[in-house]
Amino acid sequence: METLEFDYCVVGGGGAGAVLARALTEQVGGTVALLEIGPSDAGRDEVLDFRRYREVPAGELGRRIPIVQPPRGNGRFSYPISRVLGGSTSQNTCIWFRPPASDFADWQAAGAKGWGPEEISPHFDALEKRIHVETEASDLDSHRILFDAARDAGFKRIEFSAPFDEGIGRYRMSKSGHLRQSSSVAFLRPDDSLPKNLAILTGTAVERVLISPDGRAGAVATNRGTIGARREIILCAGALETPKLLMLSGIGPADELRRFAIPVRRDLPGVGRHLLDHPAACVNVAARGPLARDDVWNYAGVLFARVEPDAAWPDIEIQLGPELFEQQTGPAGYPGSPFGFAAYFTVNRARSEGRLALASPDHRADLAVDPAYFTDPDGYDMRIMVGGVRRARRLFATPAMAGWVGAELAPGSDCETDERIEDFIRETATTGYHPAGTCRMGSVGDPTSVVDPALNIIGISGLRVADASIMPTMVSVNIAPTCMMIGHRAASLIAADSR
Fold first, then answer.
1. pTM: predicted TM-score of the whole model, two decimal places
2. Same domain, residue pair 225 and 371
3. Which of the residues are catalytic?
């Protein structure tokens, strides 16, 4: 076992971690170690070729964490965790949206001082100068008619390269042709361009953070030995693994830690709480005949709409494509078809909050993950989902779709009342693959806060968090760009403190 020491240790080489490590080396004079549990993505075609994105979560570069079976509804899905440089950006669908300004105004109102629209905009600008983002442009009839259907339903065409509101637009994606633009590709390539003060240690599993009796984080215990950090440790392991590491290190809800005989270093009840996500469901309809496919990306476009007319920004995102979304409807017993259309939708600002808990003090054990979908007290999330079903049906019933669509497969024509639609949603709802919020950023005086607005763990020195877990409220779009923004901004905060 080796003993290494650096000025900064970044734990997790994913969307936030890879960006942070590279940006930090460019802004501070010290040495930086990026610790990643998985291998490099270099030369891994299943990662680099975007067309193969379905392979990564199911292969050796990923693992899946099952959820706690809810009292009512779908317990079949699981959360994927990527174990390769680039993290989730090495396995996701590369959808690139900048959230609306109202999301970050809400962050500030929730106690995240300095994270408003004006402060975070330069970081998105910097990312987009480094990452190639392109707009998909399929000319297949099976794609075109979905845009025509949105037009018939009263939605205008919009561009996602500028601030937007309701409407339908072509996908913006962080890729170049079929080549993925992950955080690793954009910030850690080519190898000979890396700063000499950056060390990338792949195959390095961090088991816990080592904290001194005076409350300072000075090292991490790993499978390769102790790795010290003279200045800071920054956890970027994601919304599931970061709170797990904190709890294994004695930082979290004290009663739960004592249950596993873990010495309590800091009682922070918010660790593992406030799990946010974009719950997802779909409407599937059969096609009357074969449909042409796009070899790279077969979804046609994204529609943003309001279910509640007074919403500050569209409250539902609907992805439309000439293929069925059967991951959960099939296991639930709904019929399929050789060809069909899907409207896959998510609640943009879901209000339900889940939680994570340790199931064992063994760092190799999975967490107990309870997304707690549709538990918000006023039923908002379910109302938006029911609205999503009704809007999808309207799209498929437009004149543009006449002659193209056959029977509705899921939820089916006999599912008409709100109550029946709610039952369908509970039985088939799944994750939008956007877990966040489990180490909530807020003011130091807020008992639910885990990190302050400078991303420091409250009550522990030398330890920060910079990943999706710090989100105080959910962003209204796919979260990968925001995770990368968090990593970029964290580098600036750390550099400012070092000066």
1. 0.97
2. no
3. 434
